[in-house]
Design goal:
Order of helices and strands: EHEHEHHHEHEHE
Radius of gyration: 16 Å
Structural class: alpha/beta
Number of strands: 6
Oligomer: single chain
Shape: globular
Strand content: 15-25%
Distance between the termini: 26 Å
Strand order of the largest sheet: 3-2-4-1-5-6
């Protein structure tokens, strides 16, 4: 995408699926490897930012083989605590889980984090990006849905973040992002051929 004036652009890519993702488990800070996937590598990309977890590093290495990967735990998925590697079917009758589903900003999984805590980390990660106006970020569904909701003014429950898709968010300026303004455009394109989750 061509940069428009002083526009600030984030290209957000959700990692390729893991076995836990395919089993519909909550995979937050559990450090799973990705399953095999096909994608056309972009050898021209020289720098990528993202989560320090293995599934993001592995996806970045396949998509951007020549890029330096700048890892940060701030780009991690929500920490699901005692609900890590559990499914909806295992949790649906749990009252604490129902509270969290209804209000994830104020409730957290036992020994995990709330959406408010995740949002604080993601805001810190965006502010920590170096000087520049266009960044590619390899991260997880939760951070992407949070940023989409923030950028569009919609609820996080309305957002989707498919594995292996690049979502591009454009703001007028970097200052507009930091002040919480809505984005001026967004788009999504698939990067992987055999990903269906």
């Amino acid at each position: 995408m061509a940069i428009m004036g002083n526009s600030f652009i984030l290209h957000l890519i959700r990692h390729a699926p893991t076995a836990g993702n395919q089993a519909k488990q909550y995979i937050g800070w559990t450090d799973e490897a990705v399953l095999p996937f096909k994608a056309e590598p972009d050898a021209s990309q020289i720098a990528v930012w993202g989560s320090d977890l293995k599934r993001c590093r592995q996806t970045a290495a396949c998509l951007f083989p020549n890029a330096v990967y700048h890892a940060s735990p701030d780009w991690r998925e929500c920490h699901f605590g005692e609900w890590e590697q559990k499914t909806y079917a295992e949790l649906e009758s749990n009252g604490l889980y129902r509270n969290w589903v209804d209000d994830p900003f104020h409730f957290a999984p036992p020994n995990g984090e709330s959406l408010h805590q995740l949002a604080t980390r993601i805001e810190r990660a965006v502010k920590a990006l170096p000087d520049g106006d266009e960044f590619t970020i390899l991260t997880h569904g939760g951070p992407i849905r949070y940023l989409l909701a923030r950028a569009t003014g919609e609820s996080i429950q309305q957002q989707t973040a498919s594995h292996g898709h690049r979502i591009t968010l454009v703001w007028k300026t970097r200052k507009a992002v930091e002040e919480g303004d809505l984005c001026i455009s967004f788009s999504a394109v698939p990067l992987m051929a055999n990903v269906n989750t």
